[in-house]
Task: structure prediction
Amino acid sequence: MTKAAALLLAGGLALSACASDEDGGDAAGGSSSGGGGSEDLKIGVAYDTGGRGDRSFNDSAIAGVEAAIEEHGGEVRDLSPNSDASNRVELLTQLADEGYNPVIAVGFAYGDVIGDVVEQYPDTTFAIIDSSVEEIGADNLTGLLFAEEQGSFLAGVAAALKTETDHIGFVGGVETPLIEKFEAGYVAGAKAVNDAITVDVSYISPAGDFSGFNDPAKGQIVAQGMFDGGADIVYHAAGGSGLGVFQAAAASNGRAIGVDSDQYQTVDDPALQAVIMTSMLKRVDNAVQAFIDSFVEGNVEGGTDVVNDLESEGVGLATTGGFIDDIQGDIDEYRQQIIDGEIEVPTTP
Result:
């Protein structure tokens, strides 16, 4: 298994908040003078549930694409799944048929179908986020993975150090092994600070029902129950549903922890910014840009997984707003212990 250090992008994310069009897909094309001969670069993106405008996972992926286009030139075509996400194969094949190369599948849900697709298009380079490809064995497919449990551990540390009630919460979008990594790390981090802390855990939808990633109303209901029950900080790993968690925090004079992107910068609402004390950064943007850079340079190593962790700065905590400045020293100590192997963060609850 290879490990690649994520690129460090200057400044925070400047993410698009435009929604996908009604037919479940949209296309955006552009070129840049910074490409130096890569003007024919055509990047295809198949989004996860929620599509563009989720202000989190999908938007982070497209931010990485746009950063690569700014550097290399080229264009992007991005498509979103339909309401029940049953057309994932069609999205990938459409992009490949239209000549987009590379094609990036955003989300582990593509893992069940991408193996058959890449076999049909041996001359197209594919990447999938959050799904291992080593067992598939295709030399035109790369897995972009993250140590979500490590970043979530630091989120748990921050919550435990900041709570005034010794009672915090976690809201997952869909009950899957991937989201359980967020839960496991968060609980472990909180318990490392205070073993007696109470951590409420709830999922918006069960395994197989991906609506939990795009249902802010249910996210608000679940989080509100936690705040009403005594929690004063709630961390979400729920994609677009996280907006509801922020709304519940604002209504309850509580605080929230965002995910994937620096959500303090993406919510565009001062009332919600005021309750987002930090976000667990999953630098999908960096990983995607690094993959495209490798593609342009002809250095993609197919059939392997690239793991982005604390050491490579592929995960971490946002500091925008200054809410965790006073505990940064403690967070840095735990971060270094994880990097040094002194703390082994669990990946399952």
Remarks:
- The CA atoms of residues 20 and 335 lie 37 Å apart.
